[in-house]
Amino acid sequence: MEHVLMVCLGNICRSPLAEGILRKKFNTLGIKGEVDSAGTGAYHAGERPDVRSQEIANRHGIDISRQRARKFIREDFDRFDAIYAMDRSNYSDIISLARNKQDMEKVHLILNTVYPGENRQIPDPYYGGRDGFLNVYNMLDAACDVIANDILRRKSGSTS
After folding, report:
1. Rounded to two decimals, what is the model's pTM?
2. Which domain, by its residues, includes 127?
3. 78 assigned to active site
C-alpha cells in the first residue's frame, strides 16, 4: 500500500488539487493506498480548498470539497512513503523538520517527476485568476501521471 502526501503553503490551492488528482489516478489504476495533503503553514487549518481549486477539479471529474486544510507535522514522515512539495520554499520547510536522512529521502519537488533535476516549481495560483488554476492543474496532472505509473511499475516488478 502506498502512502503519498502532497504539500504546499496553505493547503487550499495546489496540494488539495494534487491530492484529488492522484487519488483519482489510484482509483482508476487500482492502486491501493492513501493520498493526503497538508500545508507548511496553518493559515487555513480546517478550511475547504479554495473555490477555484474546487471548480477546476470538478471540471475534471474530481470532488475535493470534503478535504480540509491541515498543517504538515513531523509525524507525517512516519505515515507517508513519499512527500511531494510544490515549490522550493515548501521543500525547505519540510526538510527543516526532518529528523534523519530517511525522512529527507522521502521529500521531493513534485515537478522533478516530470523534469528530473530541474527543480521547477508549481506556482501558487492564489493571487492570480482562474487561468492560473488551470495551468497548475495541468502541471499536477502530468506529475501525478508519472507518480502513479512509477508506483504501478514498482508493484508489477515486485514478487509480493
Report:
1. 0.96
2. 2-157
3. no
